[in-house]
Amino acid sequence: MDCAECGQRLRLQYTTWRKVATLEGMLRLKVSIGRCENPACAHYHRSTHPVEEGHVVLPHYEYGLDVLAFIGQRRYREQATAKQIHAALEQRAVRISQRNVQYLLERYDELVALSVRDSPERRVRLETQGRLILAIDGLQPDVGHEVLWVIREVLSGEVLLARSRLSSRQADLVALLREAIAGVKAPVVGVISDGQQSIGNAVAEAFPGVPHQLCQFHYWKQAVSPAWEADRHAKKELKKRVRAIRPLERTVSEREDEEAQVVQGYCAAVRGALSDEGQAPLEPGGLRLHERLEQIEASLQRAEKKGGLPKPLQRLHGILERALTATAAYWPPLAAMFQCIHEAVDLLENPEQRPAAEVRARYARWVHDFAKRLKTPVGETIRHWGQHFVKITQSYWSGLFHTDDVDGLPRTNNDLEHLFGSLRHQERRITGHKVASPSLIVRGAVRVLAAVITWANPLTPRQLGEVDPVAWHEERRQLGKLREARLQQRHFRQHPDTYLAALEERLLKLGLPP
Q1: Burial of 366 by CB count in 10 Å (0-12 exposed, 13-18 middle, 19+ buried)?
Q2: pTM reported for the whole predicted model
Q3: Which of 291, 333, 376, 445 has a Cα-to-Cα distance from 201 of 20 to 30 A?
């Protein structure tokens, strides 16, 4: 065994034995501890464990790295709970407690994240592309707590960085952006994010002159929000008046004749229309419900003219007619507004692949004409919605068109949003939590990378064992600081008097003479 610092042969200091639980059974490792005898070496007279030991088991742990790899794959590829993983290990004759499964999963997260964070292979892959396009977004399930910031490379799909930060200041985001591409020589040619001002300022400082595309999905969501809310209110009013079909359905539920089946068919059509919520922000559910109920009502009207309607369908026809009449004033303004919005969508999506300058000019003319239309009597009914649309368009204007000039720069940041959604979905399947748990934020710096890497290409136990122990201990220290902060907050909520008394005692000790 040679010294890792100077390369000189180590002198055998002593031999010890370790018991390690693996998937194949218990191992008894003979570990030869060496010592460097070179006075000029920085590791002079320092005890050194053999490298091969780290390929089997972590320092001071009793379970092999193959057990860690098994736990990580079951967790992230099969969404297994700690209880299910514990049962699977028991079947393999690995004696372990359920709490230890959770501890080892945390070690797996740390090792995977460190193994890929500074990986030379990843750096080579990114440099081979010749250019980088970054996507940045934050996840904050608890207002007032840390934000989990994730930076992803769009072309390769790799997560470059995940960090939890208490603030979203420009300086913090600049540091994250620079850290994400540290050591990679390929230039950044584009960035995609939402319209948060601190992100825009950070991108401008970190990558001067680089196009910063603002997510068009977020743009539409903000620009259309008043009209969308009005549509939702109109839909609620319409649905409230159609709920009277429930007694009608009950009158024919026990019958199986042809007339009853036709009535049930029309009621099913109404139910199908009521259950369609639309798709935000460009497909309003209220307008769609109104259109479909009009189709059903027109069908009943045609049938009535041709041969009359049975009594249940007469009642249904009356219900729909009254509901559509009572809400008739809502729909023309909404239809006019969303027609304008869809015209804008067609221009901004640029299916003809026109240059960004031409798209910008055409969209500017459309917005100008739209603003003039709002000042006429024709545009009076949609003036409030339209003015909000123009205002949001002006705030997003500088970042809407870069995607038409930079090849590969996406129009939306939905891929990164989908990553967050996948993590939340996985947490919900495993833990039952409907939203992201605080632990995802506290340990997000390693958990996000571990989840993404395990989904795509799980690491082998040997790859886990190649992580630098010093870097691993430092990562655990940083994560421990975040966890300690959360624990202090919980202790205060549970026992505020005891918590404050302990702080007062420590504060008084600071004032005592040494």
Answers
A1: middle
A2: 0.82
A3: 445
